[in-house]
Amino acid sequence: MATKIDKEACREAYNLVRDDATEVNWVTFKYNGSTIVPGDQGVDYETFKRECTDDVRLFGFVRFTTGDAMSKRVKFALITWIGEDVSGLQRAKTGTDKTLVKEVVQNFAKEFVISDHKELDEDYIKNELKKAGGANYDAQTE
């Protein structure tokens, strides 16, 4: 059966993360049968990491504050999580299903496909976002 996405509900969740007026820093998009729907949302990145278990595949849209001494910037990451216990067929479908998620989640600095818990490390993600962000003034002194 072809995968569908609940665009309106997913767009609302996506906008919560993008809105500076909310404290929501992450949201997941999960499978409900063959439909992608908003999953959980929260403030703490560690809570997001706990959503990424070995038996699930999900998409996460996460807000990070990056930057250097000269400027702080908000950067967004699209994380595709595929747990180690996910079947080969579901793993393969996740790549094509991601195109549906990208119809809603259109603004992000970097995209990650992760199946190893070590790669979910917050410092690793932030460092990758920083590299993607352009100018870095950390090396300069005042």
The CATH topology: Severin
- Helix percent reads 25-40%
Q: Based on the structure given, which CATH architecture is correct?
A: 3-Layer(aba) Sandwich
Shape: globular
Radius of gyration: 16 Å
Fourth CATH level, the homologous superfamily? Severin
Largest sheet: 6 strands, mixed
Would you identify the regions where 5 or more consecutive residues have pLDDT less than 50? none
Element-by-element helix/strand order: EHEEHEEHEH
> What topology, given as strand order, has the largest sheet?
1-3-2-4-5-6
Distance from N terminus to C terminus (CA atoms, Å) equals 60 Å
Give the DSSP E fraction (strand runs of 2 or more residues): 25-35%
Number of domains: 1
CATH C-level class is: Alpha Beta
Count of DSSP strands: 6
Mean of the pLDDT scores? 91
Structural features, described:
With 142 residues, this protein is α/β, with parallel strands linked by helices. The chain has a single domain (4-133), classed as Severin. Helix content is 33%, strand content 31%. It contains 4 helices and 6 strands. A 6-stranded mixed β-sheet has the order 1-3-2-4-5-6.
